[in-house]
Amino acid sequence: MNGRTALVTGATGGLGKAIATAVAREGASVVVVGRSAARAEDAIRDIRAKEPNAVLEPLVCDLSSQASIRSAVDGFLLRHDKLDVLVNAAGVFRKERHVTPDGLELTFATNVMGYFLLTNLLLDALKRGGGADGARTSRIVNIASKYSGGPSTTKIDFDDLQTAKGNYSYLRATPPTMLGRVLLTQEFAERLRGSNVVVNAVHPGLVKHTALLQDVGGPFRWMTNTFGATAEKAADTPVWLATAPETAAVSGKLWAKRKELPTPGMGSDPAARKRLWEECTRLSKIL
């Protein structure tokens, strides 16, 4: 990974920070993305305490804000002409419904639109990062989930992407966004077929002491902290996908513990992933 550049969202805590630390240990220069400069700098200090020789830089980006994403990408491209690894690890799990300045429900805006827009805006840089050698492909790794309730039962309601109908709850809002990440991973992989960029999704499982659940009820935090893996252990598969030679040509898959997971139900529906792509394109006005 020496001479390569990685950008990790959600890198100010938990799984994202563990991934950033491990990728830096492999020799890559790591762009640490945080919602504020202070949080990004704090994370950099924590990573350097473990990896004194790490090459790190902060990047401020609020993944729920399309303006912030565009500004962050502009800032990155002023300093870098290419990107070798993009790890989308940011996410939210909110107890109450919030609407962003873009008019989108916050969970969907962050967990789906943030991944979609950031990745699209960085695609040219990722294509410049890959080399002619198959082992030099650029990698996109999306932290996702095999979704609560099982992939065959979780659905995306395209008539209610913003969870505006009925009573809002994180159990209604969050699982479809995890499915959405898998669908977008598959659609990116299809659209990037034949290029020097691969994209995969990872189900990390429960992760101890994650900030993701601090806004929700005690039972969820108790279950996660009791049965979850450490962030360092959960980071193994994302880092493997981001750095290992043997994963250079793998694309469009959902992984857990370095093993491919099936995606039955809507998770294997090309029409669903195409429709989600079209909706995200419309909502981000990217084209």
What strand order characterises the main sheet?
3-2-1-4-5-6-7-8
Helix coverage percent of residues?
40-55%
User: How many domains, as an integer?
Assistant: 1
Main beta-sheet annotation:
8 strands, mixed
Shape: globular
Task: Please count the helical segments.
Answer: 9
Low-confidence segments: none
Architecture (CATH level 2) name: 3-Layer(aba) Sandwich
InterPro entries: SDR_fam
Keywords: Oxidoreductase
Pfam families: adh_short
Protein name: SDR family NAD(P)-dependent oxidoreductase
Can you describe this structure?
The chain is of the alpha/beta class. It has a single domain, classed as 3-Layer(aba) Sandwich (Rossmann fold), CATH 3.40.50. The protein is 43% helix and 13% strand. It has 9 helices and 8 strands. The chain has helices at 14-25, 37-50, 66-79, 106-129, 170-191, 218-227, 231-234, 236-243, 270-284, and strands spanning 5-8, 29-34, 55-60, 85-88, 138-143, 197-202, 254-256, 259-261. It has an 8-stranded mixed β-sheet with strand order 3-2-1-4-5-6-7-8, with helices on both faces. Helix 5 (170-191) links the parallel strand 5 (138-143) and strand 6. Helix 1 crosses helix 2 and helix 5 (170-191) packs across helix 9 (270-284). The longest helix is centred in the middle third of the chain and has 24 residues, at 106-129. The protein is globular and about 50 Å long.
Descriptive labels:
SDR_fam; single chain; alpha/beta; Rossmann fold; 287 residues; SDR family NAD(P)-dependent oxidoreductase; 13% strand; oxidoreductase
Secondary-structure map with pairings?
Blueprint: E1 5-8, H1 14-25, E2 29-34, H2 37-50, E3 55-60, H3 66-79, E4 85-88, H4 106-129, E5 138-143, H5 170-191, E6 197-202, H6 218-227, H7 231-234, H8 236-243, E7 254-256, E8 259-261, H9 270-284
Parallel strand pairs: 1-2, 1-4, 2-3, 4-5, 5-6, 6-7
Antiparallel strand pairs: 7-8
Helix pairs in contact: 1-2, 3-4, 4-5, 4-9, 5-9
Organism: Paenarthrobacter aromaticivorans
Pfam families: adh_short
Keywords: Oxidoreductase
